[in-house]
Amino acid sequence: MSTKHAIPAALWQQYQTVQFLCAQKPVFSSQFAIITACNPAGEVLVEKRNSALHNTFEKRLQGLELPYVEMTGASLDLRHQEPGFAISCRFDQAMQLAVEYHQNAFYWVEDDQLWLMPCLAAGRSEVNLGPFAPYIRVAT
Questions:
Q1: Any idea what DSSP says for residue 87?
Q2: Phi, psi for residue 81 in degrees, rounded to 5
Q3: In angstroms, what CA-CA distances link 14 with 49, 74, 76, 116?
Q4: Crossing angle of helices 91-100/47-64, nearest 10°?
Q5: Measured between alpha carbons, how far is residue 51 from residues 45, 55, 57, 60 in Å?
Q6: E-assigned strand segments in 1-134
Q7: Which of 10, 43, 106, 112 has a Cα at 20 to 30 A from 122?
Q8: How far apart are CA 133 and CA 112, in angstroms?
């Protein structure tokens, strides 16, 4: 199992200024997770390696038979983007998947509230980012 580690305050703040790009808004129940397999533990990897991690993660989700849709987390200026998935699952399943793929944090949506949830980020607390809808950018 991965161990928790300190992450810089600037990176934690970047996680809080996010937008989600998708082909369609998820139509799950009242709760779901948004998780990426890219850039584990905050280490920026080359696109080829991130693509392989993304594909492995998708196969894992298919094996678990969890409903999901592709969703990309992006900086507000779109310069940084990480493909991932909105996954209909329980909170404990989301935490387990995020730990399995060595993520500092993941996003949790419950009753239309977006939460940033620390996973491997030591010393960080969950952050309520407010209503989920303003964070979504659906491709037209």
A1: E
A2: -140, 140
A3: 22, 10, 9, 11
A4: 140
A5: 10, 6, 10, 14
A6: 18-22, 31-36, 68-75, 81-87, 105-110, 113-118, 127-131
A7: 112
A8: 7
**Single-letter code of the amino acid located at 37:** A
Which residue is associated with the tokens 């620390």? Answer: 118
CB 80, CB 74: distance < 8 Å: yes
Residue 10 in tokens: 């600037």
- DSSP single-letter state for residue 121: B
pLDDT in tens, 14-59: 999 999 999 987 777 789 999 999 999 999 999 999 999 999 999 9
Tokens of 69: 């849709």
